[in-house]
Amino acid sequence: MAPLSIEEENYVRLALLLKGVTPRAVRTYFDVEFPPNTLSSTLSTSYNTLLDLKIKRIINQAQWNLLIPRNGVPDSKTFDVTLMICLIRNLTSISPPINGFDTLPLPGEITPGSDLARIKCYRNKLAHHDSNKIDTAFSNTAWREISDAVFRLGGQTMYQECQELKVKILDQSNQEILLEIKHSLDEMKELRQTINNLGMEHSKVTKSIIQLETSYSSLQTEHFTVTENLKDLQTSHGNLQISHSKLQSSYSILQTDHSTVTDKLKDLQTSTSSLQTLHSTIQTEHLNVMESLKDPIPWNIREQIEKQIKDWECKDKMFVPTRASDYVMECLQYNSCVTLTAPSGVGKTFIARHTALLLKRE
Predict the structure, then answer these.
(1) How many degrees, rounded to 5, is the angle at CA 29 between CA 25 and CA 35?
(2) What CA–CA distances, in Å, run from 214 to 50, 156, 217?
(3) What's the CA gap between 138 and 181, in Å, rounded?
(4) Are the CB atoms for 98 and 105 separated by under 8 Å?
(5) Which of 38, 149, 285, 357 could pair with 115 in a Cys bridge, judged by C-beta atoms 3.0 to 4.6 Å apart?
(6) d(Cα 118, Cα 120) in Å, to the nearest integer?
């Protein structure tokens, strides 16, 4: 097998450090915070917190089975680095780094929380590294920070192990590790592609869920509107039933009134017929009276009167107006009746006939 390049050796050494030494350093600190003889009771006491972490998917099902085993008691030796750091963060009062546990701490931060975050961040960097090579500058910086963290968490013995691993000659078994790592990288690329595809599918499903939620919300709104409209219709139907009942009562009353009015109308028709007969009789009598009133003077008397008027007209041709006759006409203009008085033979009759003829002409 071809010898490893310096960059490949850097990758292998850093992988051996993070996967072989750091888990034991973290476990040493974990066992101080969670003594093995009380670990089971501590986890039982914190069951609700652990369940909340599981619901939030911070703890997966495999880790949950280690924490709450069906048989036996939990053992920190079965916990991986991620699970131990998660429990330390959430079940103890450890102080977080300045920028939190999910960011690489500053070089000057040397608290236990910072060292745990430092190990966690470098493990993530290595897991997401796209090749099996790491440049020397980055390798030296990472090695120094990780070794110091191991010293503070696990003690001098583990720190010495880190220094020996830094200069140890990599043998055939180490090269086989590199081959396994290469194979693992290929598998990781495939997994990433699968994850990306799943992410796209998840995005589509999420969009569909959002659309369904929007549709559901719209349906709820429409259902509420329909329910309100139904209530209004029910109220209107009740009002219509009341109105219909009132109309039926009114109709019954109107039928009764109509029957009464019909009877009265029949009586009026009978009375009208009687009145028409009476009116016809009166008209006939009136016509008879009018005929009788057309000429109230009998014809023989009227003939005598006409002869008398002609005689007056002949004699009136010889009439000479006097002051007396003029005075009589003047009096008739202001009075409806005038009486002529004078001795006999002075012309009273003459003046009376002359005045009558003048009035007849007018």
Answers:
(1) 130
(2) 34, 60, 5
(3) 19
(4) yes
(5) 149
(6) 5
The string of DSSP letters for 4-36 reads: PPHHHHHHHHHHHIIIIIHHHHHHHHHHHHS-G
Angle at which helices 136-154 and 22-33 cross, to 10°: 30
The two structure tokens encoding residue 336: 């409806």
Phi, psi of 70 (to 5 degrees): -70, -35
Tens digits of residue pLDDT in 240-274: 898 888 888 888 898 888 888 888 988 888 888 88
Selected residue with higher pLDDT from 187 and 209: 209
Any residues with CB less than 8 A from the CB of 119 and at least 6 apart, and which? 18, 22, 25, 26, 81, 85, 146, 149, 150
Encode 169-196: b = buried (16+ Cβ within 10 Å), e = exposed: ebeeebbebbeebeeeeeebeeeeeeee
- At residue 80, what are phi and psi to the nearest 5 degrees? -85, 175
Cα–Cα distance for residue pair 43/76, rounded to 1 Å:
11
* Residue at 153: amino acid letter: L
Task: Determine the Cα–Cα distance for residues 116 and 124; give it in Å rounded to an integer.
Answer: 12
pLDDT at site 192: 58
In terms of Cβ atoms closer than 10 Å to its own Cβ (0-12, 13-18, 19+), residue 238 is exposed
Candidates 249, 242, 272, 241; CA nearest to 257 is 249
Classified as helix, coil or strand, 98 is coil
**Do 153 and 26 contact (CB within 8 A), yes or no?**
yes
Here the tokens at position 136 are: 């020397």
Mean pLDDT of 117-139: 90
Classify residue 345 as left (phi > 0), alpha (psi -120 to 50) or beta.
Answer: left
The whole-number pLDDT of residue 194 equals: 60
